[in-house]
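haha ok so turns out i had the wrong file open the whole time. this is the CORRECT one, sorry everyone. sequence first:
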Amino acid sequence: MTNLTFSGMRIRDTTADGINLHGGVTSSTITNNDIRNTGDDGIALWADSGIGADSQDTISNNTVQLQQLANGIAGYGGNNNTISGNRVVDTGITQGGGITVAQRFTSTPVGLYTISNNTLIRDGSLDPNWKFGVGALWFDASQATVSGPINVSNTLIEQSPYEAIQWVEGTVNGVNLNGVSIQGTGTFALQEQTPGSAAATNVTATGIAQANAGKAPSYSCEGSNFTVTDKGGNSGITPTQCNGWPTPVFPPYPTSGVQPSPSATTATPSASPTSASPTPTSPSTNTNLALKASISASSHTQNYAATNADDGDTSTYWESANGTWPATLTVNLGAAHSLSSVVAALPPSSAWQTRTQTFSVLGSTNGSSWTTLAGSAARTFNPSTGNTVTISLPSGTSEQYIELDFTANSVQNGAQVSELEVMGH
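then structure:
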């Protein structure tokens, strides 16, 4: 089956899953639903190897809560799938966690997953069989090595009863954490229980029960068998300890109330892109200053507007008017910032064939006088490597405006960008 859409549904009090796409379901969307009190996973992609991979599917802008068994949202195998903008609350009450990607239940291999702009609140529980806690966000390779990549970005994990993020069973590689805020856990920030590897950028953890007790904030008995590459901007997640399972100290309710991640839904969600506005805040190391900033384009076609290119959702994109060259995409960062690189992305789905786009990168402090920061060149976007292009900027670059100036696209007669990221330092 392909091109299915589940939207605007209210699902309550089921014995099993709320929605389960079981084997060979492709290019389908589960969006803007409210799912509560399910007996099993709230929403699941089950890529049954006897049927086929679930791929190019999107789970977006749903509210999922009170799953009695299993998880709020689960991806069992499959590839090129996106989980974005969801609010996952009080899940895994008797067993399970918030969001999981796992090689389980005879699934096809886990390929690319994009997990972005989600809010996870009070997710996870003590597993009655394992006798240790399950994370709000967790990865499992019980039936085969997971290679991913699994890209997690712009995510808030709040009030986890046990650990915030967990790796368990088998070997799990290719988890990339970027812009993850952990606020309050009952035990650990990270719980590493499997060989493998991960990378962390701008991952911050506060209110970690073990750290509050004067102990290491994360758990690992894997030694050098599990590595987390520190790519900068991280705090509160190291060092690790290997001292068994502490009694959880459940985190208090935040005095300011539960706060959503910057792009995650906070109530009944809307499918419309969030209006862009300037972002004048001072950056930390490797901060994406373009996210939700004021953005414009020389033209666009249909509903593929410029605001799609900095909404934090790689499944939406900007496309310029057909045959109108050059085409420009310009972001206003609100103030001049010290900049290190520009990242241009296309949707990670394998439905997007490899292509080259020819463009240059320009910078300006006032929006009228421009300097070429990277000359025009044909740059390759390949879904198998994430469909992104990263361009390093000259040392000392400080600009308020960044513009991409396109002159060609090898596949489409228009420029295309799903996310324009401008990294500050």
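The radius of gyration is 21 Å.
again sry for the mixup
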